[in-house]
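Researcher: Last one for today. Full complex below.
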Amino acid sequence: MSLLEIDNLSVRYGPADAPPVVDGLDLRLETGEVLAIVGESGSGKSQAMLALLGLVDPPGRVAADRLHFAGHDLLALGERQRRRLLGKELAMVFQDPLAALDPSYRVGFQLEEVLRQHLGLRGAAARRRALDLLEQVEIPAAASRLDAYPHQLSGGMAQRVAIALAIAAEPRLLIADEPTTALDVTIQAQILELLLNLQRERGMALLLISHDLAVVAECARRVCVMYAGQAVEVGALPGLFDAPAHPYTEALLAALPEAGTARRPLRGLPGSVPGRHDRPAGCLLAPRCAYVQDDCRARRPPLDAKRQSRARCFHPRNQETP
Amino acid sequence: MLSFLARRLGLLIPTFLGVTLLTFALIRLIPGDPVEVMMGERRLDPQAHAEAMHRLGLDRPLHEQYLSYLGQLARGDLGQSLRTHESVWSEFASLFPATVELAGAALLLASVLGLLAGVVAALKRGTPLDHGTMGLALTGYSMPIFWWALILIMFFSVQLGWTPVSGRLDLLYDVEPVTGFMLIDTLLSDERGAFLDALRHLILPAIVLGTIPLAVIARMTRSAMLEVLREDYLRAARARGLSPARLVFVHALRNALVPVLTVFGLQVGSLLSGAVLTETLFSWPGIGKWLIEAIGARDYPVVQNGILLIAALVVLVNVVVDILYGLANPRIRHRQ
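Model: Here's the assembly. Have a good evening.
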């Protein structure tokens, strides 16, 4: 049994026949594994994660054949049981750290709140543990930061606090939704390193959502590429980036500047992600794909679970070897 | 903080000058004068009238009267009532607790119910409960106070006989005025049942006076809550598995309270102006009724200085609210 098992997850807004924002996502995650989900904004990666946590609010609707985490059926979970899981076994770090901290309360208060909720720690014990957590996320002068309000922190510092909040109850899975996107470039590497260190030390699984392929290549062992709500390719790294099977993955990589190689013009993908109301009948990438053929326009390719590197494509690239 | 206080208190002087000028002019624009009202218009002898006006100094040119009024204020003298010859200050001080009691009860009612209604409407957004609550709030806001008071009196006092029609306490009870707050004084006295009677006298006027602030606070709380509920930090707090009660009351309401607090301060002004009407309707012996009677009698010193004291109160309350605003919102407190 995997730590996280997602079969055919979909998230829908609006009428039943409207195209879902997450469309039949399958995903497996093992204990202690680092998996990255990449995709453009609007590809459904954040919505999929919110669905996992049960944070998709009406009118949004979540459906799945299977949505299991650590033996719990997340879809069948009662509100009370879900709350016991969230922040304890399953935690999330959000994109904008300053927006994710309550502006009215000191850092120490917010940490102690989580420690009380999930570990039953109170008073001096909670205080000590809060300080301990701030030190674990390598905040300098941690003791003085306990009494700081979020607006007194820099973006990087606030993200460290948000990470401390997420790991407070030692979760088995940490979801990091674009944890470095809102930060200065110089800080990004530090935060990623911190996340990976924590992951290694605690043996927790890390689900890293990003649109930065360089970050993904550095951190993750496996990657899931999402496009327009669907996983289009799932596979191990670095193999998947060396020889991408799906034209979309190939296009993403081609849009990446490479250090050390001869200067070449960056290639973008023409057009944009289809909206909810102009979905093509066949492959969702067909209107933008350089290798499109007739069958691509007629039918939507499935994601073949049997192959080693899986791609949702009738005519995958880099398949010379049998 | 000190410079902030000094700035705000410095604003008091121009505010007060404006208030004195306005009341001084307005009360004199009303036809008739204190002597006429006291002596009765018909039997008034022009000779006696002129003498009385001279004695009161009301025959001097207006600018002289105004300047001597300001001089009096500068010496800290609020003058005496033309009718009772009591000092305006002591009359104000003896009646003020009654108004504070009424306004306080109204504000308490308005804040508790208003916050509750606002929170519930925001949480149940778009449901019949939300529409119903907000519809009621709008109705309450638009209702003329005197009409609302008369309806309540007719129904609860006259038809059902549940509450008394007017006053603060039944004549049966003999209660020593210690604090001037009837609810406290009745508790301090030995009179059995006096406290409940005082409460029964208070409830209708408090509802009447509290209706508009209640509606304003409810609508403001709802919109502030809706704004906060959309915030990332609330979703993040949910992702930490916090209980719904903690999410709503510790995180959402605390942040929603910041804009609502400003409304509180502004409502104090409208509470005092509403008190004038409410006290008159319920014969509530507070400063509102006192001022209305003073205007009727053209009691110039009482009208001018009574209004000045009320203005001072409104300004002070708003200064206090501004300070509270800083306490409620750490982002403002730390902006130096």
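Residues 4-89+169-311 of chain A form a domain with the Rossmann fold fold (CATH 3.40.50.300). Chain A has one domain: 4-89+169-311.
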